[in-house]
Amino acid sequence: MAYVGLICEGETDAIALKQFVNAYLAARGETEIRFKALQPNSDASSRPEGGWTRVLGWCRRHAGERLGKIFEIPGFEGDPILTHLLIHVDGDALDLVTGQSPPLSEKDSALTAMEMLPLHLKAALECDADLAKRLIFAIPVQSIEAWILASLVDEDLEFDVIDAKSEYRKRFDVGFRGSKREKFKKAAERAAEYAADRARRSPSYTHFVERELPKIAA
User: Beta-strand (E) ranges in the chain?
Assistant: First the structure.
């Protein structure tokens, strides 16, 4: 069974990613997976803090030998040992993390984010080639809302170029009852149901399912 540690920018990102991963595995007849929230920390007594700086900070604090121990020693007594880490950073953080800022309208901008961000995060973790096989990178461009929109809306939009957060709020945040977290979870659940057929309209989602998620089954 895969036991995956989640290092995400925010709680809602983790909610959506769990839905997408579960749907991907279920479509392949694989359902044995558990998640452990590491960043933001679900066990925190106060409201957990997020953002790309927190993700990068987590990577730096757990670099080198500490990273190796994550896959050797349970975090708490009785917990299984983690088999993988799923690390999420939105593609719009590319210029902040790497110091590069290609315009999102450029043809290869999404690919640049998907390739450059993992390189910088792996460098922060100081991981070798063997440990890198346990790292799954989720780099939505510009944000996880792009994957939700690609799964649910009928229009043929440039999902990795538009302001997906704003577009999501206009379509799914207005007129729906419940907290922001509850509404996001419902939208993510619906999106995951249709992701296999429709979300590939987002190049960053296609990269995720074709290049990153197969590491779980490897």
Answer: 2-7, 33-39, 84-88, 135-138
